Automatic annotation (TrEMBL):
Residues 37-91 form the P-type ATPase N-terminal domain. Residues 821-1082 form the P-type ATPase C-terminal domain. CDD domains: P-type_ATPase_APLT_Dnf-like (cd02073). The keyword Metal-binding applies. Belongs to the cation transport ATPase (P-type) (TC 3.A.3) family. Type IV subfamily. Keywords: ATP-binding, Endoplasmic reticulum, Endosome, Golgi apparatus, Lipid transport, Magnesium, Membrane, Metal-binding, Nucleotide-binding, Translocase, Transmembrane, Transmembrane helix, Transport. Component of a P4-ATPase flippase complex which consists of a catalytic alpha subunit ATP11B and an accessory beta subunit TMEM30A. This is Phospholipid-transporting ATPase. GO terms for molecular function: ATP binding; ATP hydrolysis activity; ATPase-coupled intramembrane lipid transporter activity; magnesium ion binding. GO terms for cellular component: early endosome; endoplasmic reticulum; Golgi apparatus; plasma membrane; recycling endosome membrane. Catalytic component of a P4-ATPase flippase complex which catalyzes the hydrolysis of ATP coupled to the transport of aminophospholipids, phosphatidylserines (PS) and phosphatidylethanolamines (PE), from the outer to the inner leaflet of intracellular membranes. May contribute to the maintenance of membrane lipid asymmetry in endosome compartment.
Amino acid sequence: MLLRWIRQQLGFDPPHQSDTRTVYIANRFPQHGHYVPQRFADNRIISSKYTVWNFVPKNLFEQFRRIANFYFLIIFLVQLMIDTPTSPVTSGLPLFFVITVTAIKQGYEDWLRHKADNEVNGAPVFVVRSGSLVQTRSKNIRVGDIVRVAKDETFPVDLVLLSSDRAEGTCHITTTSLDGETNLKTHYSVPETLVSQSVSRLEALHAVVECQQPDADLYRFVGRITVTQQEEEIVRPIGPENLLLRGARLKNTKEIFGVAVYTGMESKMALNYKCKSQKRSAVEKSMNTFLLIYLGILLFEAILSTILKYAWQAEKKWDEPFYNQKTEQERNSSQILKFISDFLAFLVLYNFIIPISLYVTVEMQKFLGSFFIGWDLDLYHEESDQMAQVNTSDLNEELGQVEYVFTDKTGTLTENEMLFRECSINGIKYQEINGKLVHEGMTDDSPDGSVPPLSREELLFLKAVSLCHTVQISYEQPGDGPGNPFPNANGFSSQMEYYASSPDEKALVEATKRMGVTFIGSHGEVMEIKTFGKSEKYKLLHVLEFDATRRRMSVILQTPSGGKVLFTKGAESAVLPFTKSGEIDKTRVHVDEFALKGLRTLVVACRHFNVEEYEEVDRQLHEARAALQQREERLAEVFSFIEKDLELLGATGVEDKLQEKVQETIESLRLAGIKVWVLTGDKHETAVSVSLSCGHFHRTMNILELVQQKSDNECAEQLRQLARRIREDHVIQHGLVVDGASLSLALRGHEKLFMEVCKNCSAVLCCRMAPLQKAKVVRLLKTSPEKPITLAIGDGANDVSMIQEAHVGIGIMGKEGRQAVRNSDYAIARFRFLSKLLLVHGHFYYIRVATLVQYFFYKNVCFITPQFLYQFFCLFSQQTLYDSVYLTLYNICFTSLPILVYSLFEQQVHPHMLQSKPVLYRDISKNSLLSFKTFLYWTLLGFCHAFVFFFGSYILMGEDTSLMGNGQSLRANRQLMFGNWTFGTLVFTVMVITVTLKLALETHFWTWMNHFVTWGSIAFYFIFSLFYGGIIWPFLHTQDMYFVFVQLLSSGSAWFAIIIILIACLFPDIIKKVIYRHLQPTSTQKSQFETNYQGIGCVDSMCCYSEGENGCARLGRMVAQVMGRYNPAYANRSWSDSDPFYSNDRSILTLAPMEAAHC
């Protein structure tokens, strides 16, 4: 038992093992002795990762899973175990710094999660215990407790509704925090418990709930409630309509009582806390590859040094010189152990070639840089008051590498605001004019504004539309209470507002209201409509809910005359095949015409039941809904049995307007080299029409179709024909249309052929797509041999799988809920914002991180190569060139801040230039700035600079140079002046200045922060060295650097050497840049010239001169004169009121304090 309890506490042995759980209401367990209560989770929500007890071991374990951290830990342990040339502090302190910074960041984030958890878990709630209403904390609720929730409160657990203050036992809730839907949803209690509206009645209630074990699906719940009344057991099925989910809010209902069935981390809301799969960017993959290469260089240098040491010591005089005699133990020690020990010592000496602070700097850059997206006012949507949101900062640079965009249509390219336009009734087309139903082609010519009488077919169609839905009504001043079931029942009060989960439903119900058939509301099982002022009440017998498989929903009603009727509406492919009467062919033609106009279509039908038919339908529905096993499958069979032999009434056409600037955004993406695929569930004609109107398809495009394929062979043959047509047609651009059924066949056995066709098409449209098919298409492109970077963007729950599958997932804050936003990496309010997100933010993030990674490797090669070269001059004795403090602080203090600030603020081109010239995006595509060629250039540059540092210092200072600043000869003091530490300090000084100035040369966008950290880092190095070497520190065991730096700086020769070496390192780099910029400029560099000449000069430098001329402009003019490219027209170019200036740029990225008139 103890072992099982321990396993349960550790989460390895969950307390419940059966498929169902039994909940005794008010925890009245059976009295017989052999009953063992099931164990359930408590009601605490835990979103935190750590506790006080496990934070240190768990965090350390996670951090040391990183290969770089683990590597430095091994080096640190080696330094502790064997006699190494450098102090263990040199590896231990940087490692401690990195681990500590990361731990503090993660600990702070987890503390915030703990704080939020405590607020939720400590919230006051009311439960029924021992015959009275008791206040307690949310975390103390147990499964089986009866909980009371008042109006506008949030449900603290998942509850099965027992009763409400309404006579019919219903309540209204909103689930905005769960799925983003703002409509009011009605939930029901079973007839046997709805009368238990007081604590005393609830205390007398004997009932048991049997239901499935916790499930993350918000819309699925299978169970039954057994109520014992007068020793008789009554069994009722319960489903999602009886379950009140934690996180939802009670509306328009004074109070409810419910029994807790799922608590704490087993509630559906908690189970939907999704741990996203870890996405890794292309830059991170390149970084890991480079780390392995540098690890190889490190091993090579260590092995070579060890071999050369033993080759050198083969001579007796070098093996045991007179000043370093070996002990007897050293002479008799194992040669193999000595070799291993020396190898490890060299490994420790050169280990700084692996940059330990690279990871922490990249993490800080990503974390801090991600705020720019949220702060960018150009990505702020004023109407909805929504700003862009970053859910993960790990993929910032991936925004600059996108090659394919997969987008949903409805709510992403369109507004998802529906407006009724046309309908077809009994084979005749109608349109709405001034709230009247008018035959197409006719005008509303009734002078008195009277409404013409409707025919029987027209009236039946409007009634079907106004009754077949799940719309709820809200009033500004609702008359609560059973005495007034239909407040404002005239139906025309301006206070009445419809709420619907689907914008289509809302648009249709509002349209029928304008035409004279008004839905007044639902009260229990009664639905009321007013037909031109005359009230009609229908009894709601059953609702056949919409699902993605059937693609239709139905209601079964009892008419005022007592007849039973089924009203159905859905996609034409889901309804027309099941109709047997009505104007089927004409309606199909009208539906296609609606679709060609870009309208969303729904088909409406009905079926009348006689008494025997309805009794059979009612029996089958009751049996299927009461089933605990395979309830969904049994319900699907019954729904298919009911929804057949339909009488076609007509079809509707609803317009979904395009979002603003969709066409311009798609065109920008295309110019940037990004291919756009539209994946939608809409029908073929509608999707093609919208694609043409939004610019996804051009009118001049050759549109190819792969639709309505019935078999594998037919599909394969069609694909071959399309491939042949693409090869033979010399049209510049092709577009491809695929439907869901044909796509399934294409993906089953002809993936290569299908991909060949798709890749030769400029635009692809996939219609009639299921959510999983969307994800399959993304995966197909993602895993193709070229491995392109993919981005998926959508606004609905049906886009979640696609968003999670793509390299970068973007959610649109639309009207279809928040699931897409919750599961995305980034969230924006409108599709048009995608242009700036990719072309500007993506461009900036990528060049910043790419330069950061390359620069880190470069400066560490500069750092450790002189140490390697020095071994040739000290007989590979493992003598260190630099002081231990310098070794420790090089990456932490002296060179860390300039690259961090660069990686946050760098802009090579003005943001407006990037948006106006999308082709610049191609310059950075396919990870071009981190290609092997670029990596090789930075690495060789590091080696070259390191050779110049070392041999320059050696040649200039190591031979006959013996001049102090005053010119006196100090040949006798050479050993003091130019010893080991002096030489190493000179090399180190030149190195710190050179790598800092090298970054300054790479910087295009200077802010005051760049100036501060660049010149401040150099100044800090000098000030620190003066203090470190100028004072005798009592806590230091040895102080080799005492007065070394002061004496070095007092030498004019040293200053001369520093200047000469700096010029030797950086001047060739400047010449190379000038030549390449003028002879082989990239598109980005050309745009920099353009930007300067258009007056946006401050992008290049924030050192502004009078009249707005920047610092680089004068130098540029001089270079242009030298190279014969000087144009006097640009000589005095400066800011003025007449210059083009982008005054509407509200981006936080423009950190320069620029104004329209002057800089």
